[in-house]
Amino acid sequence: MKVALYIRVSSDAQDVNLSIGAQLRALRECAEKHGYIIVREFVDEAESGRTSARPAFLEMIALAKTKESPFEMILVGKLNCFSRNRIDSITFKELLRKRGISVVSINEPLENNPSGKLLEGIIEGMDEFYSANLGQDIRRGLREAAEGLFFVGRLPLYGFHKVKVMDKGKLRNKLEPDSADSSSVLAIKLAFSMALAQKK
Description:
Elements: E1 2-9, H1 20-34, E2 37-45, H2 55-64, E3 73-76, H3 79-82, H4 86-98, E4 102-105, H5 114-147, E5 160-167, E6 170-177, H6 183-199
Parallel strand pairs: 1-2, 1-3, 3-4
Antiparallel strand pairs: 5-6
């Protein structure tokens, strides 16, 4: 059987996915074990599963819709790699099914019977709930950080440094300006003085 591999690594920092390399290894091993022939590998990096607007995903679907699709099955690590949107998942899987192409999760083996379909729907519903809930948690966390003037980025702004402070029992970061004689502050002062000199 000819198969395509689909790998997605999320854009959500807290949406934990295996690395592209780890996913590819697992999918290739599964294909080899079952004697499948891999014809294409589609990879979406830093793409959310909440939308179907993913370059590699759309390319894969377009190829599946051609008169003679080069693959009969799409292997994914988990169903949430294919989609975290229940409607998208149903729509695209039905489109593929009509062309004789199945989507198979190597870590969530499901039987092709009513019980398997029910379990698939439950897994997809839970994935969508997790994704929506995570989005709310992230937005709430960012709002709280902004209200408390906390810094949530990785690298501080030039001329500033991070300082750990305790807030409601949690360690958080705040920004403080570098000392007045530091090289960063001197560079900023020089840049502003040069800009002002050009305006005169």
